[in-house]
Amino acid sequence: MRRPLRWAIPLAVVPVLVLLAYGFKTDPHAIPSPLVGKPAAAFELKTFDGSPVSLASLRGQVVVVNFWASWCYPACYEEAPALERGWKRYQDRGVTMVGVNIQDKEELARKFLGQFAHTFPNAPDPAGRVSVDYGVYGVPETFFIDRRGRIRAKHVGAVTDEILRKEIDRLLAEPVS
Amino acid sequence: MTRRWRIAALAALLWWPAAALAAPVNEETVQAIASGLRCVVCQNLSVGDSPSETANQMRAIIRERLAAGDTPEQVTAYFVDKYGEWILLAPTRRGFNLLVWIAPFAGLGAGAIIVVLVLRRWRRRGARTAPPPVDEAMRSRIAREMADSDR
Going by CATH, does the domain composed of B3-90 fall within 3.10.20.90? Predict the structure, then answer.
């Protein structure tokens, strides 16, 4: 009985080390969204220009929904030009981009839009309802919705031209049902 | 009391619980639900404890859903649906998660058993290895050395 006990003490450290190794390797901020693969929640918002934008009206198109805020520096500022470039590149190919401004002040949000001269629809989400419906926990977050209205990918952090191209092309390549 | 009055009274009685349900949402219920949800923009803070705008909006959504007739479980389920189990500050007690709930107690129990076993063995060994008998030579040596140290 004495021998196995002496063995057991260093052995007991092994699972703890494995757990720690696993814990330190995973990024605590990378939380998998349960929404990928599920139908995207419907929303109806009013853009900063005063025109309505709803997901239902965009059915049949590939939709990129980007959540942002003017205080989200630098990530939102980094991705803003890429989003506008993506919009210019894809707007005539059945792709719509919608910016949802969350946790922000209207004046600052408008300043942000002016700074980047965004031409795609951008709308505030004053009650945070859309952001909770999309399980948003920080900005920026970008959702890629397929033609059938399902969320197919979620990107946390600034998007780049490559990410936009990769995700949008993948969804555009799918057959129109 | 006329028959009509009786019907009116009955209708009022039936109507009353429905009115109670539609009454303003109990803030304690809102707080109870909120304190079980992780504030998504905070570190280790519940929606109930966070003063952030996001938490404020989430509390408003809880209130709204309760007012619409959702049960507290349904409200919590809505958030789990959107954010995953991650949103819950305490993992649900089912499936693989049970391990988290059971393991500490199992560990405590196993530890207690080991302590009892070890203590028993020590006691048994203590009984077996009695101090060596003191013979006459040893006794006189002790007396001598004590006398020496007194000097």
Answer: no
